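Sequence only, no structure available. Ideas?
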Amino acid sequence: MEFLVVIIFVAAIAYFALKLRLPTKQKISRDHLPDVFVVIDLETTGLDASKHEIIEIAAIRYRKDGGKEHETYQSLVRPKKKVPKKITEITGITQEMIERDGQELHKALAEFNEFIGTHRLVTFNAEFDMAFLTSAWKKCDHAVPRNQVSCALKMARRAWPGRKTYRLSDLASAT
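Reply:
I predicted one. Tokens follow.
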């Protein structure tokens, strides 16, 4: 969940940096963050959505007014194959955790869909996460939601052009 909090932070900083630097006619961008949005993060068994699987879905429903506590969703997901050791090293998610706490993908997606509703989704690498989610929704015969999606990575690249790195940890420490 700490990763999601950093995404919220970076997305908000990038949005306001863009808003302050852009000419008046361009102040409203399609990456404008509404009063309520959902920050999502996935962990997967690899990098290719056509070959690899989701092993964790996490989300925070963020309210800009701060009047309500942010709501969270998290689920480990049982992949068809065992979790590779390299993925455990990267994510900290073990096969034992999956076996003990994981649920079937179709159930996790149903819960996730209910959690996100029609709110805008924000993720750090939207192309990656949305490729996995779209593949999963189709595999489970779920309708692919039509939520708007904003990419915090793209916002950061526009807000801070010319940086050597756009890794989330580097952006968080620089802001």
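Helices lie at 2-21, 85-91, 95-101, 105-116, 126-139, 152-159, 168-174.
Hope that gets you unstuck.
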